[in-house]
Amino acid sequence: xxxxxxxxxQMLKQEVASRLRTAFPExxxxxxxxxxxxxxxxxEDLIEKVNGRVSEKWFYTHVKSAHAHLxxxxxxxxxxxxxxxxxxxxxxxxxxxxxxxxxRISVRKKQVFWIAAPLCLVVLVVFYMxxxxxxxxxxxxxxxxxxxxxxxxxxxxxxxxxxxxPYRIKAGEDGCIQVQTNQDEVRFIVxxxxxxxxxxVRRLDKQQMSEQVALKTNDxxxxxxxFSHSNVEDWQQRRTQLDSMIREDAxxxxxxxxxxIGMEMYNKWEFIDKLTMPIQSLRNIEILEMQYAADKIKELxxxxxxxxxxx
Length: 311
Fold this sequence. Notes:
By secondary structure, the chain is an alpha+beta fold. It has 9 helices and 11 strands.
């Protein structure tokens, strides 16, 4: 077994780790540090992706062991298929390394070779691992109109992956998300009751690890929110504005908190009456979801918060 073969296997292990992290981002980047949970996730993903399996004993023998030992060819083929290649030979061919067999070389040249060859292999491995190491990027959301930070816990970010199931993350209190990836591009959907849904696509650059993402506001949602939290004397003007925003056949649902069960449904004018009554306890509305048809609200879900106390 040549040093080159072991280098190929080291590369394959790193790509297996990267492949599993696309489905389970919480998995560590160093495959040799994986234990029971990570190994079980790999076993499940191998069954799902390539209809194959490795035992925990095999993993400890060939992946975590300090003594290098190349697995059987059928297992190398299986892992190569898992990372997107037809077999082990195809994987090696994609990396471009070749075994070097010294023949008819002087003793001095042999000595130089055995010193230089391992160094070259180390350089290649380091280069490969650096190219496939995950980096952490930061995306912070701002209002497209005033460039102020959006610190909204209701923002829903859906991370997208090619040929993988999407998953959701939440922005932190600073209005930012952290994305760990070794890909050249990141794609995610941003949804929120007070902002327009948008699909964000960014080419990643290690020279720019943090970036702002501007979101356009959902104007109708903001207007209803402001209406319900402010005192306005001209109620008729407000009713006229709401009338122009909401379809006649709109379906409007009030969602109760955990202390109450179920929901309540309103038609258009029942909702307008609720929103324009000069009784603060009937208002304080927070929008949860809104759908449109022909630029008018066709469906709306909201909850009602307790009015502020004035002691």
